[in-house]
Amino acid sequence: MSVQTPGVYTYSPREFHRQAHDALGNPQIRANFRKAMDGLMTKRRDSFGDWDLEALRELGANIRLRALAKLPDLLEQLEANCKANGIRVHWAEDGDQACRIIREICQSHDARSVVKGKSMVSEEMHLNAHLEEVGIEALESDLGEYLVQLNEQTPSHIIMPAIHLNTDEISEILHDKTGIERSRDVDYMTAAARSQLRERFMAADVGVSGVNFAVAETGSLCLVENEGNGRMTTTVPPVHVAVTGIEKVVEHLRDVPPLYSLLTRSATGQHVTTYFNMISSPRKAGEHDGPKEVHLVLVDNGRSNIYQDDELLDTLRCIRCGACMNHCPVYTRVGGHTYGTTYPGPIGSILSPHLMGLEETKDLPTASSLCGACGEVCPVKIPIPDLLVRLRRESVGEGRGNVPGAGVKRTRKEAAAWKGFQWLATHPAIWRSGTAVAGKLKVLAPSRLGVWTEYRSAPKPAGTTLHALVKRHQASKAHEEER
């Protein structure tokens, strides 16, 4: 899979390093992201205020773990309760099957236009392109998604799709694509886009949305949003299709408030979003609005493979808040398109290998400093750094090899070098002797170490070890005290 951005080139996870180099050389991209991320990190920190954040994170993690432990049963319960409520349930083994299901629903109603609320799963399965191939127009209604669609791009963030664009760039896009006047007035541009979208809502034959939480106990679909486009998408067109990954199910309705509190604060620093929608049935007799049909498409697309691995299973806890991206020193400097995948940043680096294969995405687990920030801010305590290390091992043919495409081997020289380092590092006496000798011979250290030094300076041994410096400092301090 690759991502096309007009006027630039095709983004691909295989070209992460080249794309990162280009992004780092683009001062506008760096400025846009730095400004946005600084604000989001501050808002997240302030929003938790007097809350016991760690207790709430622990609760959120336990809710997600309990749901995953019962996932097969909960999915059956969800299906049964949705059907009892009048929602038609469909199962899709992969993205292509999910697209066919939605296409067939549209064609059964002679639909020519679809209006979509924000849905990363629909991005994952390339739904828009699939519908357009059969003559069905798919229009994004989330403002950020609408902007990147007008610009023929893909989202660069899972919460804020157009975060890579600044005000002037947005103004130019709206002027070129919709004819409104150039302006730096955000309210004017928002109102103009809303006016254009409102007409499309009224004319759409089918509405497609994502799902934040699917409640097995009640057969309810929860949708979190700020703009009202989700509510319009799910109520104005006569047919509503909700599409979600199978991992989004929760057991009880009471599980939703803690997850909702974590999601909104972690994502945008809000205590609550403007809208929280609960869809439990199509329009009933005597009701004056709402869709006549509601469909739920449950998408696997590699998630069952993740579910069978007791370590990588933690990936499925994700509630798609984007906090790991906002705090990642790599993502905040290169942006989402650099990753060449639907899900960028730390969560994408552990999820994308399952969806696309590790051979295709082998550079993504290394696109991290392993600083641990992503794990510290994850609202459901996914051990992202540990999973990145696991995938790094598998990408060079070590570890369990459960990820599709795992097993890209190191060169013999590289493998031998790391084995030698491992042996030295586990024999302290030899390590100390070796580092002492290396320090005396540092002038002989090579300045080039193959591809490793293409982007780094070759390390040179210090003339004096840290232990020796500490001992020297302590001896000097003791001498001063004696005097």
From TrEMBL:
Keyword Transport: yes
Organism expressing this protein natively: Halomonas fontilapidosi
Keywords, comma-separated and alphabetical: 4Fe-4S, Electron transport, Iron, Iron-sulfur, Metal-binding, Repeat, Transport
Occurrences of domain 4Fe-4S ferredoxin-type (ranges): 309-338
A UniProt-annotated Pfam family: LutB_C
Gene Ontology molecular functions: 4 iron, 4 sulfur cluster binding; metal ion binding
NCBIfam families recorded: LutB/LldF family L-lactate oxidation iron-sulfur protein
One of the GO BP terms on file: lactate metabolic process
Name of the featured protein: L-lactate dehydrogenase complex protein LldF
